[in-house]
Amino acid sequence: MKKCTLLFVALIAFGVNSITAQDKVVDRIIEIGNSDNQVMEHLDILSNRIGGRPIGSDAYDNAVKWTADQFRKWGMEVVVEQCGELGVGFNRGPWFGRMLSDEGMVLHFATPSYTSGTKGVQRGHVVMEPKSKTELERMRTVLNGAWVLVDGISRGWAIDRSAKGDSVRQAAIEYNILTNKHNDSVRRANFRNDIAVYEKELKPLKEEPALFYNEMIEAGVLGFIQASRVPINALYDRAAMDGMTFENLPKVPDIKLDEKQYAIIAEKVKRREYFQLEFDIRNHFRPGPVPYHNVIAILRGSEKPNEYVISGGHLDAFDVATGGVDCGSGSSANMEAARLIMEAAQGKKPKRSIMIALWAGEEFGLLGSKYFVETHQKDWKNISNYFNRDGGPLASNSLTVNEAMYPAFERATKVIVEGRAIKDTAYRFTLRKRTGEPSKRPTSAGGSDHAYFALNGIPTVSFGTADYKGYGFSYGEIWHTERDLYNKSIAEYQEQSSVVMAIVLWNLANEKSLLSREGLYRD
Question: Is the pLDDT of residue 303 over 50?
Fold first, then answer.
């Protein structure tokens, strides 16, 4: 009886000491996170030293190497996982343009990734694109050496030069032939005062940017110019994902120009004023195949090393800016959460593993996270939750979880809800219990790296965010635009989020069991 009592007391003491040790790690995370937070140093290197990071670029490869080296330096197990390859790679250099006339101006423009640069400095006259085969034939000589203004407002994509794009343009050409015949008959009736026919309205032609794309290239155009709203967004040539090789690279630049400058230039063309545009665009390609990689960092658990709490963000970013927000804000916050945990733990291990994932190719279709989920099926049941940070550099202000998960999250967020994690009292944090019927499991991929986890029934609870202090952050202003810069990230929000993330990851990794999936989805 005495031995049993002693054993019972010893077990209680061990439990208390274990809890105390875990709490000490959390206290240390808070201390370091508030006094020596390095999230903005990570972001500075990613966005200002390395820069825009589309997969297939030297910059992306540099980001993979640097982040993997950092995780190793902090003592984590690192896997650099190849998750695909591109037929060619792409590197962006400087670009410059101007209008040469009495009222000349420096041009404000961008080009999508994986599109052509100029052949040095190129100067030429400007024409509007032809809208019919008759116009095309009449303009063949003038198209040679011209910059061509094409229809429509750019959404950032390169002109579709694929077989599908050719088919869409051909359908528009055929529609416009019939429409022109109809409109000619209406005009003739109007001329004859045939009221019955005159009452019919003229039909608009179908607008399709660069309607005679291939024919204009054969005629010798210097490049295409399309109007863009400001801030200018620039995505990529989708052919890069579908068989682009060094033998079928784009031949001429695809320029997205400030819509106000486009309107000035178009008006001068309509008045038949003579002037020229000059561009120097240094877009360069890399011979492929060019592999791209996820960076996976793991703090291996002591009791359940094959169970995981995962947090991630995408490492790639469009290169028309520097990826300072999308998704430098996610990658850097995840990195700092990892650093805080490793420095605070001082060799102590959580019960289950903590994984930090920096994904490849999110901007090209969630490529890295999709590959990870599909090639790690044996781990699906062992993932407690996947947290995704890809919503901008805002503060983490809440979590909303179902009833079965609530007790675990209540323990994991206790110090945060009580206001002990961040000294600034403005940062209120709320844990909410989801009520009502469970949602239906998604059947198609969404817009960020949580999507393929959710498709396969893996919990993807993520932090709600807020602009607590009214910095006026607008995600739409930077999303895929030239303003996606380091100085658009908000330092104190990034610091707060990294601390909150580190605490929750550490605490969930030390729960007795994985988060319950009961009531997560209807099915």
Answer: yes
Q: Model pTM?
A: 0.93
The whole-angstrom separation of Cα 443 and Cα 116 is 37
Say if 459 falls within a structural domain. Answer: yes
Distance CA 150, CA 136 (A): 13
Q: Are residues 309 and 384 in contact, defined by beta-carbon separation less than 8 angstroms?
A: yes
List 279's β-bridge partners, or say none. Answer: 97, 122
Token code pair at residue 87: 């037929």
User: Which letter, b or e, does each residue of 235-251 get, where b requires 16 or more Cβ atoms within 10 Å of its Cβ?
Assistant: bbbbbbbeebeeeebbe
Examine the domain organization and report whether 294 and 167 are in the same domain.
Answer: no
Contact 475, 390 (CB under 8 A): no
pLDDT band at 188 (very low <50, low <70, confident <90, very high): confident
Domain total in the chain? 2
Looking at the fold, whether 245 and 311 belong to one and the same domain comes out as no
Q: At what angle do helices 328-345 and 491-509 cross, to 10 degrees?
A: 50
Answer whether residue 2 shows pLDDT above 80.
Answer: no
pLDDT in tens, 111-123: 999 999 999 999 9
Indicate which CATH number applies to the domain containing 136.
Answer: 3.50.30
Which pLDDT value is given to residue 202?
A: 85
- Does residue 523 lie within any of the structural domains? no
